[in-house]
Structures are given as C-alpha cells and as structure tokens.
TrEMBL record:
Superkingdom of origin organism: Bacteria
Domain EamA: 14-146, 157-282
GO cellular component assignments: membrane
Species per Swiss-Prot/TrEMBL record: Reyranella soli
Residue stretches spanning the membrane: 12-29, 41-61, 82-99, 105-123, 130-149, 155-173, 185-204, 210-231, 243-262, 268-286
Keyword Transport: no
InterPro entries noted in UniProt: EamA_dom, EmrE-like
Keyword Transmembrane helix: yes
Name the UniProt record assigns to this protein: EamA domain-containing protein
Keywords for the protein's UniProt record, in alphabetical order: Membrane, Transmembrane, Transmembrane helix
SUPFAM superfamilies in alphabetical order: Multidrug resistance efflux transporter EmrE
C-alpha cells in the first residue's frame, strides 16, 4: 500500500491496532535482550538481529524482488531513517545493561510528545485537542509510574532519553517515506542498511553464543522483524500523530513482562498509571473512529 490510499476511514483504524501489536513485540524483544546483554556485546547482538531482519524482509518482498523493492525517489530519507533506527535500537539494548526494563521504557515514553511536535513542524499534520489531551494524559500516567525524584541522576538515564528522540525522528521519517514508498520498500531499506552497518562492528568483542543463547537471539530478531514491519504498516495507514497515544502501551506490556519474567510486581502507582495510559489510548481510538465515520460521505 502507498500513501495514495493511506488514511482512508476503513484503513485508519488499523494504524492503532498495529501499533499496539508492535509495542507488545518490542516489549518481548527488550525483555529477552536484557538477559542477553549481560553476556554478549551489543554490536554482536545487533548484527545477528539484522541478519534475521534482512531474511524476513527478503521473504516479504520476494514476490516483487529486492531490486524492485529498493526503488525509491528519496533514498536519502530511507538511508537516514534506517541508520537512526539502528542507533536507537542499539542504545536501548545498551541501556538495559544498566537500567531496569520498566524504568527504561518509562523514560522513553516521552517520544509520543516529540512525534506530535515534529509531525506538526515537518509533516504539516494536524494535532487536534483530542490527540493532545490523550497524549498529555498518557504522559501523566508515565509520571505516576516513574514519580520524578525517585533516584539520583546517573548518566545511563540519558540513554533512553536520547533513544526517545531518535525513535520519534524515525517515526517521522517513516511517515515521510510512506508518502512515496510502500511499506515493503521501507522494510527492505531498514534491513539492508542495518545489516551493512552492523557487519563492521560485529567482530568487536565477539563471543560465540551457546545453543540456548542462539535460540534467544534468533527469537529476539524474529520478534523485532515482525514488530518493525507492523509499525511501518501502522504509519502507512495512519498519521504519525494519530498513533502516538497507543505507543504508551509499550510501558504497559513492559510492566506485565517485568512481573511475569523478572518477578517485579507493580505497585499501586504503576497500576494507576498504566490504567491512565490504556484509557488515553482507548479514548483516542474511539475519537478517531468517530471522526472518520463523520467524514465518510
């Protein structure tokens, strides 16, 4: 699908649903990465992930061929967004070595606010009062969870903050690319550029994974591939600002996985904050669907 058909009422609802699914996949990927980064280098893990991502992308575009899928009128946009995604992903994996899973995602949850601001500035997207209200409510839920002032400042806290800026920039560039390129084109560019870039850093501090680690690394790569494609499709169907409140569900998924995998039971404030985030996402979805229905002839 191209930008010519994106945003129609019957397709716009898929944007939020695909975004929430992508966030679930990302949370699962990050929880597994937190286990792995204690024993393996970030560059090594990213290279293996990029191999799987490229194979996944090739499978998706095989019907038209890689060469045809790579055709784009704006290769600079595709290269830039692909490199930004790679650096952002590596930053978060590195952050998991120092920070708890939920704390990392809580700090990174500022990205929807950044996306809406960048979308208005660079994409001329509209940001009505309902979207701003939902995003602010979602951010309030984040504040309820992290409760500012709970710890002294430490340099690793900058990693997810910088990652949030890069993540927001990537989504804006993906939406910009969707005006000219299909989701398949954006996917194959992301996979190819990431694979080329990580090939140069993979040998640094290489440690051969155990059989169990291979399973986890490959599993993480496959989940990440599906998540990236789902998000690309989400931004193909809907404006970047429209899907941002649903990105907060990543924090909800991370909290649940933190309890299931790491045994971290969320406290009352976390539960209240998560409820606010989910409510803001549900409200925005309902509002957008009602708006689309009203605009339908």
């Amino acid at each position: 699908m191209t930008a010519a058909t994106a945003g129609t009422p019957n397709k716009a609802a898929l944007g939020p649903l695909l975004t929430m699914f992508a966030m679930l996949c990302f949370a699962g990927m990050d929880a597994t990465s937190k286990f792995l980064v204690a024993d393996y280098a970030v560059g090594q893990m990213m290279w293996i992930r990029c191999i799987i991502l490229f194979l996944f992308a090739w499978f998706i575009v095989r019907r038209i061929g890689v060469r045809a899928a790579l055709k784009t009128p704006r290769p600079g946009v595709q290269i830039t967004r692909s490199l930004i995604l790679l650096v952002e992903s590596a930053l978060f994996v590195f952050a998991f070595r120092y920070l708890p899973l939920a704390d990392t995602h809580a700090l990174a949850s500022t990205s929807p606010l950044i996306v809406i601001a960048l979308g208005v500035i660079f994409l001329n997207e509209r940001a009505g009062a309902a979207r701003w209200l939902a995003v602010v409510a979602g951010f309030t839920g984040v504040l309820l969870i992290i409760r500012p002032g709970f710890r002294d400042f430490d340099w690793p806290l900058l990693l997810p903050v910088v990652g949030a800026v890069l993540w927001a920039t990537y989504q804006i560039l993906t939406r910009l690319a969707a005006r000219h390129d299909s989701a398949d084109t954006s996917l194959i560019w992301s996979a190819l550029i990431a694979l080329i870039a990580t090939t140069f850093v993979a040998p640094i501090d290489w440690r051969w994974p155990t059989a169990g680690a291979w399973v986890l690394i490959v599993g993480v790569a496959m989940i990440g591939s599906v998540a990236n494609y789902a998000l690309i499709k989400a931004l193909d169907y809907a404006e970047a600002g429209a899907v941002q409140p649903y990105s907060y569900t990543l924090l909800v998924w991370a909290t649940l996985l933190g309890f299931v995998v790491f045994g971290d039971f969320p406290d009352l404030w976390t539960i209240v904050g998560a409820a606010v985030i989910v409510a803001s996402s549900a409200y925005t979805w309902y509002h957008d669907r009602m708006t689309a229905s009203a605009a339908r002839p």
